[in-house]
């Protein structure tokens, strides 16, 4: 990785990483475009207000006589789940017949078509009708005092992998004047704690003590930022594809009440369940004849246009996992679509009064690239871009200069939370206010708004990033056979087995080998008393590949282990259905179901 750095401050140095470094080049391949519905084109399409027949698709369905084609649409909506139900309850209305097109005044519809009395087509469409509770937020008569906030998320894409996979989108963003944050460091393992830090300002451990106390609880009581925006007369929307594995739903209970004014989850769930196809690793890549990520982008366009036309300020979070979750190279397949999407935002003048945030939660967490040092670093450094309206940049140039300067500092999701709070009142951010904040700063401050200068002596510890996730520590390779590394790894496997105690369906794990180990350079306070090791190792059964950071307490205390786990134990290879016998999403990473072990043993005898 050479000797140059993308972040070089007193508190943090993050090395430059070549997107095509020899150590990872073998894992970068050209992906083949997947096909939806065996390349059968959709029979119907939609615009802002209607669904309509595509005449050029009739031949693909062998429709020769339009009088024999009968189509109807069913409006459907989310139902509040009962206490023990998953957050995926749907209710359908009666099917209403129409001819070649019809205006839709509801959010979600299912379209069914028969030809000569046999079903030939089924599809799902989403719309953005202007709801009364949102229409009242129109600022048509008032001077603009608000900026829209539009967050577009792409799951599991590091900053470096974004450069590799999506050069067209990168070029469009650069042309738009986007600021790229070079030191944006995740604070936890997966989507929920990293997005939770943005939306609530809290770490996962803090969520558990305040609003999500047990796994069976729903998230309604958590103080997500969209509530703040709603209270300030913004329309709110939350939309994610692959909702079954969504941030609030995978092995979790979701919400009792719809969390935002517009909530796309019910649509995605119904569409994937009924017409999901091109399934890879249990996830549908398509609904009907369309890639899911494109369906989400189309919905995002509809939402922004409806709000723009009606002068309604909004806070929008649109998150896509279908293209990139678990897939290192598939983001390249969406490059053209995302580049066109951002071009369209400009074409329709959406960004004139909108702050665009384009981001990821972390890099790729699984797969062979994670066994490399660069793969480990990339996993902790997701991409983050911001685009501000030209008029705002020019008027609030001091604030914008801070934002630009902070792009070369260590930053976190906690900072993004503080920034989004500031965007509730963006026109009050003058230099006087920022000076007061600087004077009132405390040493313990974890999150800074990106509009105020981030200290150059900021460390991971000060920013709320554990040693395990920190990318700005100096570390050196150490001998995997050293007693410290072997003892620490033995402790890790013992810890994992202890966590699985009480789960009779999970096999006891044994250590297979240690892949690599690194010793971190600790800060002055810890020097001489502790050593921190990041170790990659394998266990059996199930060939589990793991990575963990262990603190070795050099000053031993009697009757107490001198090892502590810093952060979490990361699973770095896919585990599929190995842990299907348990539902705890943390222990799923460790558990290898004994039933599978029995099947494996009997099949080899």
From TrEMBL:
Transmembrane segments annotated in the record for this chain: none
Matches recorded under InterPro entries: Alkaline_phosphatase_core_sf (IPR017850), DUF229 (IPR004245)
Entry GO CC: extracellular space
Gene3D superfamilies: Alkaline Phosphatase, subunit A (3.40.720.10)
UniProt name for this protein: DUF229 domain containing protein
Organism per entry: Pyrocoelia pectoralis
Classification lineage: Eukaryota, Metazoa, Ecdysozoa, Arthropoda, Hexapoda
